[in-house]
Amino acid sequence: MNPEAIVNLGGDRFGLLNAPDVHAEDRVCLLLLNAGFIHRSGPFRLHVRLARRLAQAGIASFRFDAPGIGDALARSDRPLLETMRADMDVLERKHGLRRFVVGGLCSAADLGWQLALTDPRVIGVISIDGLARTGCWYRWARLRRLLAKPPRAWLASLLRRTRRRASPAMSADELRDWPEQGIERVQIGGLVQRGVALLFVFTGGAGYFLHPRQFGETDRAASKAESVQFDHWPQCDHTFFKETDRRKLIEHLAQWMTRRFAP
Question: Which residue range(s) make up the domain with 253?
Fold first, then answer.
C-alpha cells in the first residue's frame, strides 16, 4: 500500500490515510479530527507532521474534514457522530482497519469522547484541552493568581468582574459539547472498564483549567486508572503556536501511541 493514500468517503469528502506496510490484524489507526473549523492539516500543519511521525513507528493515521469544514464544502443534515462512524466503516471495509484512536484539540477532543462512548471500535482517546470542571481547585488557583498581583491589579479585576455580571459571558460548559455535570464520571468509568486508553493534555490556553488537581476533581477515581494519562502544560498555548511546543506535543503523542498501540 502507498504510505499516503487518498480515501474516498463519498460525495465531495475524502481523507488522507498514512498506512505503513504493516499487516497485523489488530493494527490501530489514529483518526485526526478537525480542531474547530481548522482544515484537516491541523493548526500549523500539526496533523500532517504527527501522521508522518507515527508512520515512522508503523502506526496508521487518517486526516480528513467533517462536512462543511476545509475541503468538504457541502454541509450534511446527517448527525456528525453518524458521519464519523460511517467514515470508520469505509476504512474498515477498504483497508481492514478495525481499531481506532480518536480525538484531538478542543472540539476534536469533545467529538472523540462521544465517538468512544458510542463505538466499540474506539480503543483510545486523545483529549487536548478537553472536558474539565471549574470546582474548588480552579477557584483556589484564581485566588492565588490574584493575590500574586499588586493591589492596583485587584481593583482592575474587581471592575472586570462587575462588568461581566452586567453582561455575563458564556462558560466553557455552555460553549462546548460536554455532558451534564457529573455524567462524565460515569462515562470515563465505563471507558476505563472497557479498556480504552485515555490521554488528557491541558495547556495554558484552557482558561477553565488552572490547577492540575482539577483533573482528579472532575473524574474522581477513574483519573488514577492505569489506562489514563494526564499532563498539564501551562507554558503551551491552545494551538501550540511555538515550534518547540509543537515538536514537544508531536513527540509526546507519538510516544504514547507507540507505547500503547505499536504493532
Answer: 4-134+171-261
